[in-house]
């Protein structure tokens, strides 16, 4: 399989100047966006394309899709993807198995019963297998492994960082700085008092937001009661001026009051959703934000040079566990936000793999 994909990738690259539409090519001079100031990793670069050649309706993307659709091969890809993720994490000194075991042997199951909304109806897309879990995010194993998987995101983004802690400081720090800078510039001096983290998973991003804006009240919302139980259990071990509130709900229809927040964040959520759901999430964020409020979406950047240059084996394994990746890369997220009503829409590469898109609800 690896040999077939390598040849396909080489063919796609060699024929790119003839086969790729002009609209998909970027200027030869790559745009460089600073992720950090002063000493530190090199600033992340945009590639020459609008999106990776392995996404969308390109011949390479269709080949990968055909391979994934072959169920025996898909099963092997899923196992291989999982092994690569865990092995890479452990090579980076992330104690994946120990962290997972600690969660599974805790009293998190009692928290689950308190936090779950038994009447919640899950959208159809959420019931698909992904991330190499047959039950998707609706399982204890997915919830137990979510935090080490999240730590791996930072290390993959900043591989030269000497430690996981430093990689996290860079990835999360540049993301939080982008949010703060946008809000200060466009909010009309509106203070951030209420924060909503949609798709909060096990609460890693929610805790970063709460620490960045300690005077604000933060809410973490997710479709997975398993993830929320892990988040709530960990929060119970911490001492915080304003404890985070956890809500089991659909991010497209939260049931929360309109005009309730100054900041709505979606961190690494949209690439897991079909285009219709991403649009629904953006619309709901617009409804929930007060005038002058900020939406911040951080996720894979279609223009990332690193992602555009992934090896065929790696991007095939990635696509095998992310069923909506093509839809995410094909969607013009910035234009979607403008059509919903957001203004001051800005996108910046906050690390070599990820962009942060910020926008404002007008007064």
From TrEMBL:
The record's annotation in InterPro entries points to: Methyltransf_25 (IPR041698), Methyltransf_Superfamily (IPR050508), SAM-dependent_MTases_sf (IPR029063)
What's an example of a GO molecular-function annotation for this chain? methyltransferase activity
Under Pfam families, the record lists:
Methyltransf_25
Where does the Methyltransferase domain lie? 195-293
PANTHER family (UniProt xref)? METHYLTRANSFERASE, METHYLTRANSFERASE DOMAIN-CONTAINING PROTEIN
Q: What is this protein called?
A: Methyltransferase domain-containing protein
Origin species: Eragrostis curvula
């Amino acid at each position: 399989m690896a040999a077939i994909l390598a040849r396909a990738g080489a063919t796609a690259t060699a024929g790119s100047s003839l086969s790729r539409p002009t609209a998909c090519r970027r200027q030869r001079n790559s745009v460089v966006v600073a992720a950090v100031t002063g000493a530190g990793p090199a600033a992340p670069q945009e590639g020459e394309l609008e999106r990776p050649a392995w996404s969308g309706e390109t011949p390479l993307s269709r080949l990968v899709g055909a391979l994934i659709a072959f169920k025996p091969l898909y099963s092997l890809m899923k196992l291989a993807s999982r092994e690569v993720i865990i092995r890479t994490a452990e090579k980076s000194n992330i104690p994946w198995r120990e962290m997972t075991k600690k969660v599974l042997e805790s009293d998190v199951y009692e928290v689950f019963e308190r936090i779950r909304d038994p009447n919640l109806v899950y959208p159809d897309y959420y019931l698909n297998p992904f991330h190499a879990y047959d039950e998707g995010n609706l399982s204890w194993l997915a919830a137990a492994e979510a935090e080490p998987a999240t730590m791996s995101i930072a290390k993959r983004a900043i591989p030269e960082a000497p430690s996981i802690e430093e990689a996290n400081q860079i990835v999360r720090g540049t993301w939080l700085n982008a949010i703060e800078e946008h809000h200060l510039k466009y909010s009309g001096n509106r203070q951030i008092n209420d924060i909503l983290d949609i798709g909060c998973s096990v609460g890693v991003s929610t805790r970063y937001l709460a620490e960045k804006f300690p005077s604000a009240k933060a809410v973490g919302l997710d479709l997975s009661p398993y993830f929320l139980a892990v988040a709530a259990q960990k929060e119970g071990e911490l001492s915080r001026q304003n404890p985070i509130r956890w809500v089991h709900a659909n991010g497209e229809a939260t049931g929360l009051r309109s005009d309730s927040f100054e900041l709505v964040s979606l961190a690494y959520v949209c690439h897991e959703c079909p285009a219709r759901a991403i649009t629904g999430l953006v619309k709901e964020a617009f409804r929930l934000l007060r005038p002058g409020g900020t939406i911040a979406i951080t996720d894979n950047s279609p223009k990332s040079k690193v992602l555009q240059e992934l090896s065929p084996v790696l991007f095939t394994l990635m696509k095998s566990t992310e069923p909506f990746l093509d839809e995410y890369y094909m969607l013009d997220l910035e234009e979607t936000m403008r059509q919903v009503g957001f203004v001051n829409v800005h996108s910046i590469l906050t690390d070599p793999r990820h962009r942060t898109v910020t926008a404002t609800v007008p007064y």
